[in-house]
Amino acid sequence: MSQNKLSSKLNTLYDRATSLYDQKKYQLALNTIKDVLKKKPDHADSNSLKGILLLELGNQEEALKFCKKGLAKGITRSFPWQAFGIYNKKIHNFVEACKCYKRASNNDKENLGLFLELATFQFITRDFAGYLETREIILKKQPQKKDNWYGFALANHLTGNYEMAINAIQKYQKSNKLLSKSELIELTLYHNDLIEESGNIQKANEHLDKIFSVITNKSLWKEKKAKYFLQLGNNKRAEKMYSLLLEQNPDQIEYIKGLEISKGLLKSDEKIEELDTDRLIKLQNFYQELNEKYPQSILIKKKQLEISYGQDFKNKFISFIIPQLKKGIPSMFSNLLSLYKPSKIEKVSSKIKIIQETVLELKTHLESNQFESIQDEDLKKNVILLEESRASLLWIYFYLAQHYDKLENYPLSFEYIDKAIQHTPTLIDLYNFKGRLYKHAGDTEEASRFLEKSRKLDLADRHINNLSAKYFIRNDNVTRGSDTFNIFMPKIHNFPNWRYFQVSWMTNEVGSSYLRKEDYPKALKMFNQTIKNFLTYFDNQFNYHSYCLRDGHLRQLVKLIKFTDKVFTDQFFWVGARGAIEIYSNLHEKGKEFKQELIKQCEIEEREMKIKLEKELSNPKLDDDEKKIRKDDDLSGKKLIEIENPLKEAVKIIEILEKQAPDYIETHLLALKVYTKMENFEKCFNSINKILEINSNDFQYHKLLIEFILKAENNKKISDKVNNLKKKLEINSLSEYNQQFLQKNSSIIEHRVSAAEVMLLLGEDKEKAIEIMMSIDGLTYENKRLINTCTNVFLKLQKIDQNYANKYREQYCNKFKYSTVFNPQIIEIRNQKKLEKERKKKEEEENRQQKKKEEEKEKEIKKEEK
Question: What is one term from the GO cellular component aspect held by the record (predicted)?
């Protein structure tokens, strides 16, 4: 293997290159390793090193080429495999990276660093059996280091070998008597967690008694103790422990639930509506006692309202709302949101009516200011109590505005919020809510105006500042939104850059705005930034894993596993993933000509943006770090849309979702949509099977299924599979199957629209299909608000036939009279008013200038006369 031996001179150069790589001086290292390869072009390690240097410098294709070459020339060496592992890590292919490090460690069994890296990859890929094997090797090689003992204990824990994990912890504790107090506490609690997870609750409970003096967080100790007593069936002692905890914090829901269960009032999975009368009375009495004991607890009062009905509910509601109104608690409506959940049980749904009648009654009496005519003495007393506070009426107006907004009665909601503002025009919460109300009603421009008004009332409030920025962007004013958001952004080297701080909600909002304007390059750039943010959160496991083992935070490491297993189910990631997939799908459908047109537009924009950036970078005051932050290799997003196959890029995101969020139906809906477009029918079958396991009646799935069958049934290779699927779903005819779906879900708007779309796909009666889409009276909907559902229907109708869309708009313009989608004349009138205002302003300015000239002329005349 002479090709892998270097002369003394070349070896010095190679060592210098690796040293520069460690110092992150990649370009200098690359220049050095090139000198080695000039003399020794087949040297395996040098080719591999060149590969990872090119990777760090952003040349991924060339990097892969040299990594593969290094591997081919030195397949029995460790470094080429390590370099290929680094390459796979960089592209987030952790499973392959793990395999590479496994081969590297096999080729160099004395290199402890390789085993440590391998263990981290095994931890991240959840190969816990491999992790245990590697941790055992590391411990044997270096038994004096505590993190190796901790790693070995954790590996046993994750593979279910609890006894071995406990033994490892105990053995290390015996050999090291100089543990810090915090580390001893962590290890002791981890020891207890291990006993609990092994299933031996009795032993865990006994161990908890032994470690009482070690644990400084006595609340945590009591929580664990109460939980163990419950699991062991010792309800009396559990009740005592939860009572002690409740004395510390009567607004902690877990303590109250624990007390309910320990007293035998309610099972953990039981609903209040399922209780018989006797058990319900016992539960009500229990909460009455708690309320008397802890009168300041909002949570206990809320729970009382949830379990009371009729006149009893009204009395308790009055007792709850009167002090809140008198004190002026802005969150009082939020505290009662659980009462507004839709329910088919009459005694539950009637609570909203009672709330409305009660608050309106209080409002009427306070407005009239005549209390002597009130017959009910209790009511009279409460009204007089409210009258003592001048602001009571304000908070009643505010509550009613929120109440009617929740019921989607926008005219009444606007009436009451306007009364509230008229009463106290300086209260920020009112403008905040009015902005949200306009958003709910469908007017993003007015929403942003009121949020900006709210922001100006308190310029030091970061939350309101962010809300104002968000609403500007939702009104597609990205520049104003970004400038507003940057007010509170820390300036990195005097450069406010919210992308630098991984603000995912912001990148999503900006991306969604660009998507609405069909500016796909910029939108894709934003959504990709969100996806990168979450990949970074996932990658942080590398550093956090080492840190936790080094400092003995094993319980935190277990929490990290649970967190990162669910990190890709976060709503912000979904917005970014969904948006990016939609853009890739649209690029595929619109074809190459459309893409070329986008690229041309990007090039024009990029030229202007580059001139601006170069001007900034030429500032002599900027150092290298400042220039690095300002630098952007893809200013317009052009590189993101220059891809050959957009759907392949969409699949990369779908693969993340399939791996990290397999229980979410939307994962498989997106997959089915993309795989159908790609005609990857095997993958389609997998997605359909997953959807059937989760929800076979999903309205999006229904349309996607029909689209798939229409595309696949003519493919001879899979005709048997398609027929088997039809048999499984009992599809004799697609039209008949669609009608059955419509009949089954005839009361839900989204399902009716899906069935109507299928009718159009099948070439059936267009008039009938449109009629089904356009009806909403007496129907339910799956969206949070009816206006959102109807707006979606309108946008679908626009794509089908603009005439029908206009008819739909006319049909419901009065129902949604604040919506700019259903009443576009609102914007026209508003623009006319703006123009008129600007004209008057200009006229006034001209008159002012004219008057000034006349005054100056008059002065000159007087001067001449003198």
Answer: cytoplasm
